[in-house]
Structures are given as C-alpha cells and as structure tokens.
Amino acid sequence: MNALSPEVFYAGLVERGVPSHIAQAFVVNARDESGLNPGINEAAPIVPGSRGGYGLMQWTGPRRRALEAFAADRGASVSDPEVQMDYLLTELQGPESRAWSRISAAQTPEEAAAAIVNDFLRPAESHRARRERNYLAGVTFNPENAGQLYTPASEGRDAQGNALNAFSQPPEPERYAPALPQIGTFLDASAFQAPVNNALAAPQFSISPLSTRFR
User: Fold this and answer.
1) How far apart are CA 41 and CA 34, in angstroms?
2) pLDDT for 95-128, tens place per residue?
C-alpha cells in the first residue's frame, strides 16, 4: 500500500467538513504516526503480544477492532484510505467527541496539532511531549506551498533542515498565506494548486449527521 500525499489526505478531510487549519494538523500527526500509509502496521508493538497500531492514525486495541468492523460493514478493505478517513470522523463525532471539542477549539494549525496528539492519539508520554513541543514550535503542513513548509515532528527539523528550538515562539501569522479561514469556514478543495489523485479523492461524506457536527 502506497502512502498518501499530504495534499490528498488534507483534501479528503476538508471535503468531509473538517476546517482547513485542523485538517493541516491531522496531516502532520498522521505523518508522524504512519508516514501517511493507510496499510502500515506498527513494526514493534509497545504492548507485547498485541497486533500494534494500524493505518493512518495507528489505531490500536479496541479502536483498531472498531475500524476493522467499520470496514467489514462496508465490505471494504481496512487499508482503504477513504474508509479510514470516514472512520476518523465517526470517532470524532462519537467515542472521541470529547477530544474533538478540544481540537475544534484550536485557533491555529499548531494548537490543533498539539490537541490531536494530546487528546485524540494519546501516545506514550515521551513521544507525546516531544511532538507537542515541536508542533507548537511551528512544525506544520501548509497546503498553499504543497507541503514545502512541512517537516515531521519526529525529525525535529524545519523545512530548511535546521534543528527546531522547541521553546521558540511560533512563526508569525504571515507564514500562512493567504490567511487561514476561521473555524466553521470551509476551504474549496478545487482551489488547491497541487494536483489531487482523483482515484483517492473522497466523495462527499454521506454518513449523517457528521456534516452538522463539523460546521
């Protein structure tokens, strides 16, 4: 299974009603979790004897089993990125609605990325703390530049290859050009400059009532 491009994953979330700055935040978290590979399985599970994490967000344990059941109900492969994006939203409106309330309160991609790792993914503390610092320091994905300003937090370096100072101030808002829309405003995915793979582009999300939960 090939990895998704950041632009395809971002567009899929925006098409499902996720605000632009939060979709950006999910891109960096998914890159750090799975390399944006929907078919990847955790190589060395932290829990001995377990199957480990799976997919874009490295769903583990009961969350992985719920993803597998979700795919089976649709008669689709669990590695299908469209299925995984749909399942992600069902989690946010259901069992992970508390996490969504914190994520949706974020005003910037940096704040949203930190909320996702802290409240939705909840990795081991050593990973969580490092990723939170790097996200807040400005490690993010900018769709306007086709990902050129993106660096995984696990690498701890900016787009120019310089080591990040986790305690530095976040970048000035001018880094995001044009200005990001506020929560509740949706980006037209057709405005992307980067091409989107139509074979992976998501149809309009059809499961109700997700659309109302993200507006």
Assistant:
1) 8
2) 999 999 999 999 999 999 999 999 999 998 988 9
